[in-house]
Amino acid sequence: MSETTLSFVTVDVFTQTRYKAGNPLPIVYLPENAPITQERKQLIAREFALSETVFLHTPPAAPGTWKIDIFTTYLEHPFAGHPTIGTAVYVLKKQWETSGTQLTQDSGSENINGTFLTKAGRIEISYNPSNGIARAAIPQKHHIHAWRCPLPFLFDKQRDLDPSHLKDPSAGLPVVSIVDGMTFILAELSSLDALSRVLLQHGNVTCTLDVGWSRPQRPFYFYVRLSDGMDGMKRFRTRLFMKDAEDPATGSAACALAGYIARSEGKRGQSVIVKVVQGVEMGRECEIGVEVKLGEDGGVEGVWLSGSAVDVMSGQLPLC
Q1: Which of 79, 214, 273, 290 has its CA 20 to 30 A from that of 137?
Q2: pTM value?
Q3: Could you list the active site residues?
């Protein structure tokens, strides 16, 4: 009896330059009725040893509609940013090149549309073949928690930082969720030099989250504000460490930050455009785009994440 194998590809996400930039992402094809358990998916993700692995169910549930599962090395996520964008670029580009008539093209534009079915719900995706950018309507429940992280918690984890390295050393740090389970402590630093002082930290901070929100052990998301773009785009440099390693790009954290900035500085009923550059210090520069639409009540009405990706390698892995 021949050994059952699964095909996979890897892509570098939030870049168009392979090997030297971007956040690597494995995408594993999961054929219908494949004899695989959740435990086996977890083991495969752990074997890749990257921040997330996507399992792409085939064939599509409908033309232009794919079910995806997202695993870190230790648990399944209902949603994550760079897996969504990387897989969106891969499947929409591939389908457009081979059978574009199966997808929906925006009237009057080049964008090709599709849908992901995830544990967090439906995610509408689009891809522009002319610039290689994918865009995803992110499932969100943007929330700013009442509890703010005391500064001693930060300095206990980051011994090379002191109050002079913070933009505002007089207040605790905001704790912000984009969805339940995806919460970040936002730490605005005063300069790129301060950002370079951030060290690999061991363990997250236990936050006091509002009632009904889970997974209180959360990481810091360090950011420095850059000058705004000519078009009013708000620009930031960021860093994040998760599970004792630095993450080249964290789309969910970028969405949480963009929502916080929009709610703090935007106008009701209007959109705020944010560009985040992450991964520079580790030699994996990533460019992340986020658009946040505010409702008339000042809350977050919609979040769209965008970015590019480039194919890197492909192969087969044994199922057992």
Answers
A1: 214
A2: 0.92
A3: 52
